[in-house]
């Protein structure tokens, strides 16, 4: 029996899926973050090792001889040749691990290293053709066509881009609340909403929270639901912010469609990330705009998680399919 | 002879002016930063002491008995009661300094502690009535009327506000360059301009520069001249960014005017900060918009520096004028 590992390494957690060649998931494990650019290579190795250990441990009940013939690692920010070399050396270290209750039979050709957008696409759609619109803390649009051509739009991070992300929605909400407070723009329930949620004496104390408590992108992005709720309750300013976010995501998606798909080619667009869980019908707004522009496109929620997508990629590499 | 000290304490330097009661400047000194929220109270005390030392040292040629009867300290971010208490204790420490070649005769009433916007207003206009539109690394609009009422608009920092600032112009420029690169928006000379200026292999490497080199607000804001130059050379996208910045500053100024001045009351609006030095006629664009809305307003460049404004405030406190 051939086994493969699919790994999704992200900024908050690492997920590993152990799959057989009949696409059966035999085990699944989670561990801490594995974005090596932030946390370093040692901590990343540990997270990946722990996630694999947890996945294999689950499978031990089914089989007691786990031999890995292919592996796919999808990691945020991996693109340049130097990154790929680094991740390869990381996989070598895994192969020497004394902790993992498995054996390896990895041909170099059966090691797949790619960015997190591709595994989200493959997991979300179930095969590697279509577009993924990821909108969580950050945002990125990534597409791949039948010929294997890819197109990335966005993904430039919280300062340079991330349009339509939870971070950008949260920041726009706070800016609107402060502009209303200044008397520069129309009033909005957002000022009260932030004040209450953060237990501030006044909306002016946002300065204290944002700059002096050392809040980072993730903490700020976690305030996006405040804007979502205000929009769902009919606040005009909040709805404008959500509409702007939707239009940014529609524009990025359209750019990817136009770049690599034919004018009336059928394709699926999968939406991933926390932004799509909003109560203010952000998914419906996005879908309506996309369908109006591209009636032949189907907007879907993910069929499977990214780690499952990574498993499929490893499996197809083993079978010599897909050419990825 | 009565002497007073006017001090401008900022994030990059501290300036001290020693003035007599005939508004004659007898000495001027500079030292390092004095934003105690970032650099701590010890370093702030040292900067202020050094700036005073330098100013008094210059005056020693004119007089060898310097006795200080009033002091005004204008510091960024000072507003809350706790801040003011802290700065008062700092002034007490200065009075005990063994380093300073001067004596003190400070009544508590002759100590003025205020934010940096007020001293910029008083220095810029020469008296404490009007509006200051500060647009440097950050941005803030601050006004004061004949009745002593004040109005602040903006000044919420680089995440929550700072519309029209060098930071926001630079970020908008990089975002536009990347959107053009993605194919999302119209092409612009900004992509080449950033690539050349930062010696990048590709505009994609902006990610490397902005996130991995640990660049902070000041370093990013220092890229605003790239956008300025592109706008001056006729780039449409860059000009749109500059126009947006101008409109944000006009809106903030209008809000302050409407809040504390009568509909056709004469007043001066003074512009301070690096943004106004741009080659792309940003000052002219701003002035044209303001005059169109408020024909009775005069837009001026600063008459004096903020430290001079602080001196005037100290002097007027001594004279019992102005009520500040």
Automatic annotation (TrEMBL), chains A, B:
<protein>
    <submittedName>
        <fullName>ATPase</fullName>
    </submittedName>
</protein>
<dbReference type="InterPro" id="IPR043129">
    <property type="entry name" value="ATPase_NBD"/>
</dbReference>
<feature type="domain" description="ATPase BadF/BadG/BcrA/BcrD type">
    <location>
        <begin position="5"/>
        <end position="314"/>
    </location>
</feature>
<dbReference type="InterPro" id="IPR052519">
    <property type="entry name" value="Euk-type_GlcNAc_Kinase"/>
</dbReference>
<dbReference type="Pfam" id="PF01869">
    <property type="entry name" value="BcrAD_BadFG"/>
</dbReference>
<dbReference type="InterPro" id="IPR002731">
    <property type="entry name" value="ATPase_BadF"/>
</dbReference>
């Amino acid at each position: 029996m051939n086994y493969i590992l699919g790994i999704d390494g992200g900024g908050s957690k690492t997920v590993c899926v152990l799959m057989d060649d009949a696409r059966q998931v035999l085990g699944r494990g989670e561990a801490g973050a594995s974005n090596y650019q932030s946390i370093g290579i040692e901590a990343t190795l540990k997270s990946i090792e722990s996630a694999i250990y947890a996945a294999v441990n689950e499978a031990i009940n089914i089989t007691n001889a786990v031999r890995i013939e292919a592996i796919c690692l999808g990691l945020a920010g991996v693109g340049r040749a130097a990154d790929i070399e680094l991740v390869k050396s990381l996989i070598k270290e895994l192969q020497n691990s004394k902790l993992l209750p498995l054996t390896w039979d990895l041909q170099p050709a059966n090691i797949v290293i790619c960015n997190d957008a591709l595994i989200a696409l493959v997991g979300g759609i179930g095969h590697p053709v279509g577009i993924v619109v990821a909108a969580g803390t950050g945002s990125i649009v990534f597409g791949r066509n039948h010929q294997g051509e890819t197109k990335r739009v966005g993904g430039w991070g919280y300062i340079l881009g991330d349009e339509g992300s939870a971070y950008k929605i949260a920041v726009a909400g706070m800016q609107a609340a402060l502009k209303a407070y200044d008397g520069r723009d129309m009033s909005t329930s957002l000022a009260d909403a932030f004040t209450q949620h953060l237990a501030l004496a006044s909306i002016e104390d946002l300065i204290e929270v944002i700059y002096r408590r050392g809040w980072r992108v993730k903490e700020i992005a976690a305030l996006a639901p405040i804007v979502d709720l205000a929009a769902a309750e009919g606040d005009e300013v909040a709805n404008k912010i959500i509409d702007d976010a939707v239009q940014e995501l529609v524009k990025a998606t359209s750019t990817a469609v136009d770049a690599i798909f034919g004018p009336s080619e059928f394709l699926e667009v999968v939406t991933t990330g926390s932004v799509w869980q909003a109560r203010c019908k952000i998914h419906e707004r996005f879908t309506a705009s996309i369908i109006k522009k591209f009636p032949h496109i189907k907007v879907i929620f993910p069929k499977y998680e990214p780690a499952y997508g990574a498993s499929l990629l490893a499996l197809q590499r083993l079978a010599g399919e897909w050419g990825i």
